[in-house]
Automatic annotation (TrEMBL):
EC number of this enzyme: 2.7.13.3
Protein name (record): histidine kinase
Catalysed conversion reaction: ATP + protein L-histidine = ADP + protein N-phospho-L-histidine
SMART domains: HATPase_c (SM00387), HisKA (SM00388), PAS (SM00091), REC (SM00448)
Amino acid sequence: MTQPDELSEKPIRVLLVEDDEDDFVLTKSLVSTRDNANIHLDWVSDFNSALEHIYQNAYDVYLVDYRLGERTGIELIHEAFKAGCQTPMILLTGQDDLEVDYSALKLGAADYLVKGRIDAQLLGRSIRYALRQANVVGELAEKENKYRSLFERSIDAIFVTDRNFEFQEINPSLENLTGYSDEELRQMHVRELFDKAEVYEQLRRQIDESEQVKDTEIVLVSKDRKRIDCLLSVVAIPDKGGVTNWYQAIVRDVTQQKKAQRDLLIAEKLSMTGQIARSIAHEVRNPLTNLHLALEQLKEDLPPDDPGLSLYINIIRRNAERIGQLITEMLNSSKPRDLELTSHNLNDAVRDTLYLVHDRLQLKGMKLVTDFTTEDCAVPLDKEQFKTALLNILINAVEAMKEMTGVLTVKTIPINERAIMVCVEDNGSGISEANRQRLFDPFFTGKQGGMGLGLTTTQNIINSHRGSIEVESQEGQGTTFRLIFPK
């Protein structure tokens, strides 16, 4: 790109478009002075020839006369810019053509000169000014294109809002992240994307105070109601007077990273649970075996007709068996599942599992609503293990709802070509956020007398299928489980 201080030395190629040869001779004399020695002038006399030279992009500046036979210089400038020409053009007009002059400037001409008032100094200055301005505009356009390309091609979602946090500029990554189109987002407010309105309000206060936030964890909700874990950075953009009228935000999707962290934490917890379970099993099962043997021996030595003794012996036997069963459940809940995967229709597998809770729903006067996809939903499953995992969720849902008013909704929903989801919704008591975070922890339970291993087992089974499980809940409104399986 030519720098301004180089314009007086570097040759400037100028094409005069003029249908009067006398005017060409006059203009030639003006650029032949010492001050204009680096200006090299060529001449064409008609509209079409000028347009051909413009298409070839062989000149630095064009001097265009307004009168070009049946055509005008205004038309030539219009045609040139329409064809993508960015070379500066100076219009030459008569003394009474001010409206034409203003029209030329509005159209994009770099300058206009009035014939009869042009001298060598004015002409040279106008040509250099036009070229200098073209260079500046070109540099700005180049920078704008570079930053526009960064904006458009960024993997992270980027958007610009006004001071009211309404969308003004949106890059394609934000559309891909949220599922909303550019037009839909421009009709929305930023807070509508937030999972929780109070989080948005807190961020607004923080931005108002410090004019920025950096890598703040938030949860957005996509058009298909999917929760997206993100890192948000926002910076205020003040004008020259220091007044903030714009905000620029960058949103980074960290859903997969968060999932990986959760999966690692789950694996660590299951490993620890397994170690504890194996230690307990080793330490408890041997004494239990001795207890059973001693109990059988005691039964032989006690009078068989004493009902009180028989009652106590049965209590001891049942509780010993219960301890053995709990140890087995602990071991099974934590160890990796050995699956026998075969292709199954997910709708059929869900229907078979729902049949197992059908009587519970009827006895409690609860309603079952199903919505199964009609698309292909064959997935690799260990059907019996799947039924165990889903049954734990269904039983919890039934127990969380009130009799006669409970509604259990079960859906199968294709996510994309590679995954399908089972969605279980209830209108029960819901789960607090603190408890939701601990829902899959071993031994965590809200049930009286529960072991807290049912959902641990469920998660273990889903993970063994290389799937994932998500939970949303609001106290007093119900809970939604989403089980996602790869095809």
